[in-house]
Amino acid sequence: MRIELADVHKSFGDNHVLRGVGFQIAPGEVLAMAGENGAGKSTITRIVSGAHQPDSGRILIDGTPVVLKDPQAAMAHGIEVIYQEFQQNLFPHLSVAENMYVLDRERRFGRVLVAKRRMVEAAEAALQKLDVHLDVRRPVSGLNVAERQMVEIAKAMTHEPSLLILDEPTAALDERESERLFTQVRRLRDAGVSVIYISHRMDEVFDLADRIVVLRDGRVTLDDAVEDLETRQVVTAMVGEGVDDFYPKERNATDQVVLETDGVTGPDFHGVDVQVRAGEVLGIGGVVGCGRSTLLRALFGLEPMTGGSVTIDGSPVRVRSPREAIESRIAYLSPDRQAEGLCGALSVEANVSLASLHRFTGVSGVVRRAGERTETGAVMTDLRVRAASPAMAVGSLSGGNQQKALFAKWVMAGPRVLLMDEPTRGVDVGAKTEIYRIINKLTADGVAVVLVSSDLPELVAMSDRVVVMREGRIVTELTGDRVNEQSILEHALVGAA
Amino acid sequence: SRGGGSTATGGKAASGKKDATMIMSTLNNPFFVSVKNGAQAQSAKQGLKLAVQNADNSDATALNLSTTAISKQVGVLILDPVSSQSATSAVNQANSSNIPVMAFDRKPSGGKLTCFVGYDAVEAGRNAADALAKSLDGKGKVAEIQGILGTNVAQDRSKGFEEEIAKYKGITVVAKQSAGFDRAKALNVMTNVLQAHSDIDGVYAANDEMAMGALSALKARNLAGKVELVGNDGISDALAAIASGQMAATNAESPYALGQKVSSLASDILAGKQVDTEETLHGKLITKDNVKEYAKYLVGLGDTADVPSSLR
Amino acid sequence: MNLKSLASRLRAVWMLLLVGIILTIASPVFLTSTNLLNVGLATSVAALLAVGQTYVIILAEIDLSVGAALGFSAVVTAQILRSDGLLPALAAGVAVGVAVGLINGLLVTKARMPSFIATLATMSVLGGLSLQLTSGNPVAVTDYTFQGIGQNRLAGIPVPVLIMLVVFAVFGFVLARTRYGRFVYATGDNAEAARLSGIRTQRVKVLAFVISGVLAALAGFILTARLSTAEPTAGTGLELEAIAAVIIGGTSLAGGRGTLLGTLVGALVLGVIDNGMNLLDVSPFLQDVVKGLVILLAVFLDRNLDALRGLVTRRSGPGDAASSSTTPELARQ
Amino acid sequence: MNLKSLASRLRAVWMLLLVGIILTIASPVFLTSTNLLNVGLATSVAALLAVGQTYVIILAEIDLSVGAALGFSAVVTAQILRSDGLLPALAAGVAVGVAVGLINGLLVTKARMPSFIATLATMSVLGGLSLQLTSGNPVAVTDYTFQGIGQNRLAGIPVPVLIMLVVFAVFGFVLARTRYGRFVYATGDNAEAARLSGIRTQRVKVLAFVISGVLAALAGFILTARLSTAEPTAGTGLELEAIAAVIIGGTSLAGGRGTLLGTLVGALVLGVIDNGMNLLDVSPFLQDVVKGLVILLAVFLDRNLDALRGLVTRRSGPGDAASSSTTPELARQ
Ligand SMILES: Nc1ncnc2c1ncn2[C@@H]1O[C@H](COP(=O)(O)OP(=O)(O)OP(=O)(O)O)[C@@H](O)[C@H]1O
Ligand SMILES: Nc1ncnc2c1ncn2[C@@H]1O[C@H](COP(=O)(O)OP(=O)(O)OP(=O)(O)O)[C@@H](O)[C@H]1O
Ligand SMILES: [Mg+2]
Ligand SMILES: [Mg+2]
């Protein structure tokens, strides 16, 4: 299907988000869309999917102007979307199978009555294609972020789409899963399906795309075939300036041990011993389900720890709740910013200061607004949180800016230990570099950082040391030159299916 | 008339005002609806401009309504107190604004009333007890279905009934349950009571609405007419049930007559005439013997709505 | 639906059994077939309201107008029954139910009003209309066929109980086994995702309110037929009874979860409590106290049985309790 | 808090002005200071209940027990006033409020019960206890000082109105400007995110229920003092009035949003409607109808003013309507 956007405008209130966007996609073409956080990529997605209406401009399908007045209208044209945020795709209390076939437009499983068994079988088969093995009768609420992402992908594939839009689908996936997704995308492309692929990962973009469109401040600033482009050009088109050093890693590690675990055991991890020193970034490598996320949650008091002990700066700590963790100056950046990170209806400012509010209140409990505003403003500037106003609801920020706001909250809390799970999920290249600089600043101040990331280049570049987990245990520790993608993958995958 | 001895005049009534506000404790009950109808019919006859308000069984609402009426400077404030005690504030307010205030059905416990007219609820309970005892020849097992607990009428009727029935040594009250003056609730409650006490001989329901609910329960067990049923109020359905022998008696307190009386007293007050400060109306025990006669009396008043078509 | 909801159904059944066993011991009459049929009869009206309410609550909405809708359709039905006969009366009653449901549904979807306040307002309007229409007087019903809806028996079972069972079976089947049922769960679980998945969520909601309205009309028929009278204020307070039945039955006000079997059990729990207190002649002042305490106990057990079981088998840590307590919020999106 | 909520406050004010202007034209008495003070006086009791309710609703919970708590603390206060004098009586009344709030709060947090059913059950229990304690009889109050709480004036303004204004000012300040207020919004918006930020969300909730209980006790003092008597059933139905005020004032039942200024305006809107209908002698049966319709209109305008304005300035498309309707869901995460 050939789809064309011409001079599309869209505003939210006074925020003029799209200012005359135009581009087209040919059948069997993968178009990558890149751009800073808040550039308007997801807004385009939602316009093409019928979720939002453009203020002006035209959409043409195979040369005919169309009005996509609601998602049904878009679906009728074979447009399928994997949205950036899980909340826009999934039903936590429905089973995986019901999630995948919730609409069942073709009524494959009955016109009125539902043939449950056939639905379950079909769901299993569809996931099999993606090499995903799940009990499809389980509710989605029990899945982790990566598993949910795979379910979403499978859901979009259940219809044979003629245009598939993927909005940052790999932000929560590891290399293996990403590769499986790419295989499917290429298969669809070869079958003549058009694909719009949105990502902040330049390697993926160049790997997969036929053409790249870059968006900046709601306008197309670059639209070219991938053969004619270099990463540098794309980045410049995105951020308006060259970024020389994606990973401005500083080595600030000292000898002083801050966080030490001794044989800690919990639901998905066993006998984990790690030491993190002041100023050090400890990376944890591993594939989905290896237990590293659960380990971080347990250290923050979100999961029960059934054995072992934890010390901070030499004194034993027993953390049973996030509050106790925060009192021990541990901070935790959750990978699920929607469910666990932000209070969407509250202002950006209130979210950023939420974990450090005590600093702006005396015994009276009255918040000193001026102080709060100055400090949050400073952190937000440091992290380049792009918000029309610090008083706007954080939920209406773009995905990447929400992530930065979440990061800002924990920077502001002034932690001794910072546990980060996918800290740059959905963050654009420019802002990623900013986050890395902030990590440098934190380590320079002696903060001990634990980094879990499925973005391997990031993990390699930003960690001083990496431990690799497999099936809940630490299988190796990599230092110096041995911190590279190759050896992390080797250790993570050995023996795995 | 039969009431207390002293009389009073309606203060500033000579001002020529022709309006009154009547604040009803509730209108979710045919009894009070009929009071309203009687009052409105009579006002129309006498050229009185009568506004009727509904306090919905809430003391607070009643007080708020009174306050509003007083600031409107109505000619007469007519109260049907939700409870005797809580109406005192309203009476005091009216007193200090020099607005004549009268009450009916329940007497406010304080303040200066120009006049009060009403039925005696304790007496109603007593009469019902006597009627029930009589139809049972002084012996048997009975159940009492109470009204909305915490309301004056429910409390007083229950008090009168229990005091009086205790005098009959052969009668035991085997069940005492509330059905909130509600017909549907009474149906369920009575069904359950019959389940626990299948040998029951008589039922007293604190109003006829509940008596009708109880009657449905009795019918379902083919006990209608076999178990003696006594109610209060004398609503149309109850009169029909008495006429057909399904109900033994009701202590009728014609609400329509009460309403008429209230309106004519209000007109008298506005006209500056002397009125009795207190007038207690007495209920009339209606049985199969006098139900036709009572129906004729109601029709004579103009109160056709409260007369079943079979007796018109 | 799935294992979890099956477990929660069973839990509600446990509660019912518990109350039932206590009453069987305390009162010789409780466990007789006539008494159990009485419970069914007394429960039938609120239970019918609870069916529609279950749909609406799974959709994360609420319908406070069902009691008033019952009253209004009852008086309309009774008045038309007097003037035009049975079929026009039944048709008019159902039409009132449909209209009320449509209005509620459109207020919530098109006019984007929170259902709590929209249906509170329609409750007020309908209550006033019923009084206005009847001048506050009950409307007697003498039609023999119509009375049969409430007073006859088939094979020894009262017609209202049969109607209740059929309605639960049909609507339970629709909820559990049809596309529409899945749309109800999906929309209640995550309305935005449902919309983006191509479900016409507004229609799904409007239809649920219409179901609620029609079942309120049906409940109105039964109540009117049982009493041989339509009372303008007949349904007052029944909405809370129905909602309580739904929640006791394990349906979450946050939406996305619940079963009709649970609702039936919830309604029966409430009916059994009332029946038991009457049988035992509990002081009427204390009945409200006892009823409140039993509801607390029932819902407490329902929500904490897993945790309590966990305590016994020592499987649960502090994290577990905390994480499961937050599931409803997570689910709300 | 932010621009958006400011706009919604102002909208509620517009509604109030609209109703006020209509009444000023229709009735010469409406815009007199005595009448306006009457409205304030009539509103004060429900408005106090609505303050605590606002906290609870911003926390995405609900407190149905406030009316019954009012009645129970009123009869306890009145009985102790008769036996032990003013200070013990006031202390006991407040203690009842605290205890009820604690129980509700613990049921919702520790016992993990949905607040709708937990507070419905405590409502039933408290209602029964009030009747039991008084055997259903009102308790007369003759203490002159106590009566003053309800009947005196200061600088021409009735004491209940003053109390109401002070309570709104204090609790409005707490909500808007203190750490606790911030925690209320955060917990109501996303309890899990709040917990991960170190907020003791359970304490935040318990405290809100306690505030609700204590203000119910305070409202009970005022009502008792105004009536010179404590009625066991005094608060019946006031919970719905309070909740309606909160929602009309723009607070979302989904939690995370709302202001006390909005609630005050919401309560006044309801008070003005009642007052206006009385002044205009609207037929009592029709009053419910009119009240329901005005509430519908008010909330409709509140929720759709932006869209309507958009229609006029032709900036908005159908998609926008849809997207703004989904914002609450989006925002909730
Ligand atoms: N529903 C909404 N209401 C108000 N503003 C919105 C809404 N949705 C998006 N925006 C604004 O539109 C702009 C573009 O957001 P969009 O999500 O399209 O960015 P994006 O390019 O996808 O960014 P990211 O890479 O961070 O995902 C942002 O400034 C955002 O705040
Ligand atoms: N809330 C949950 N409920 C049930 N199971 C869960 C939940 N969260 C995680 N799991 C399971 O626990 C296992 C470990 O998950 P964990 O998130 O620790 O893996 P991970 O290695 O960190 O993965 P990733 O790299 O994708 O974050 C997985 O099999 C997952 O399915
Ligand atoms: Mg985006
Ligand atoms: Mg992980």
UniProtKB/TrEMBL annotation, chain A:
One Pfam assignment: ABC_tran
Q: Identify the residues that the record assigns to the ABC transporter domain, covering every copy.
A: 3-242, 253-496
Q: What are the alphabetically sorted keywords of the record? A: ATP-binding, Cell membrane, Membrane, Nucleotide-binding, Repeat, Sugar transport, Translocase, Transport
Molecular function (GO) terms for this protein are: ATP binding
Name of the featured protein: Sugar ABC transporter ATP-binding protein
TrEMBL record, chains C, D:
- Calcium recorded as keyword: no
Coiled-coil annotation reads none
Per its UniProt record, what InterPro entries does this chain match?
Answer: ABC_transp_permease
Pfam families found in the cross-reference section: BPD_transp_2 (PF02653)
Q: Domain of life here? A: Bacteria
Q: How does it sit in the membrane?
A: Multi-pass membrane protein
Q: Which residues cross the membrane?
A: 12-31, 37-57, 64-81, 87-108, 115-134, 154-176, 204-223, 243-273
Task: List localization entries.
Answer: Cell membrane
Broad class of where this protein is predominantly found: membrane
Q: Which UniProt keywords apply?
A: Cell membrane, Membrane, Transmembrane, Transmembrane helix
Q: What protein am I looking at?
A: ABC transporter permease
In which organism is this protein found?
Answer: Actinoallomurus acaciae
Q: What is the lineage of its organism?
A: Bacteria, Bacillati, Actinomycetota, Actinomycetes, Streptosporangiales
